[in-house]
């Protein structure tokens, strides 16, 4: 790599941080507006808690196609990228459903993990969604891992025609190791703060694996998975959880058209954690790499080579509709 290439790489690396942080800051100061939505609620049976109540927001539209959007670790239905996806769906004339992962609505129902696909399957099976003939799945970060994992499972709703994942971790062990590196401290603290809030709400209402005071002292994702996620969901530890849950070895089993969008300079899910998994991708799995962008944050106009207007979500929705035959 010559000096010019090195300089360009450094600039793009800095832009990776910018495109990760700036959308969050803008959304905090001026939250994105979306069309009217109604509450969406469903329940899932659970061996430990008996029943877990879940929530989301449903945007109706005169369409037979529904876009289901799943947020990332520490996010919720109000996250900037989730709202942008809902707006892209509206622009394309689609209905959309923004799903909260367990406890993300701060109701204290439960916590979640990277392969908790049963909640997604249960949502799709609800009577309220029976009107839709086609379903498209779009997940971000950890939510991207969840929708890809669902696409490998035999219980996937037959109406699901296409799946897209933006900046998803694929090998959970490698991903946890990366975000736990010292240079990613700021991002790690941000994510841990959010999931600790969720955990605190659960601890106030239900039995939990670790007292809240001890949980608040956890400083790495791996320790969180070892001491919170694994015991809550019956894994023997973090390694067992990663081995059983990672979608990476299951990607060859995907039968529905699927897209992974990854950023070359993602500061939270580094490219080198994804490239070994994605290098051998074959249809129906497609991969698009973006030079300028961060973690679930990109320039206003991104061209993935798909029809339709620029902008990541508009491009992804166009791809989903194209693969779904609409």
UniProtKB/TrEMBL annotation:
One of its GO terms (molecular function) is short-chain carboxylesterase activity. Keywords: Hydrolase. It comes from the Bacteria. SUPFAM superfamilies: alpha/beta-Hydrolases. InterPro entries: AB_hydrolase_1 (IPR000073), AB_hydrolase_4_sf (IPR050960), AB_hydrolase_fold (IPR029058), ABHD4 (IPR012020). Residues 67-298 form the AB hydrolase-1 domain. The active site is at residues 141, 266, 295. It holds the Pfam family Abhydrolase_6. Belongs to the AB hydrolase superfamily. AB hydrolase 4 family. This is Alpha/beta fold hydrolase. The lineage of its organism: Bacteria, Pseudomonadati, Myxococcota, Polyangia, Polyangiales.
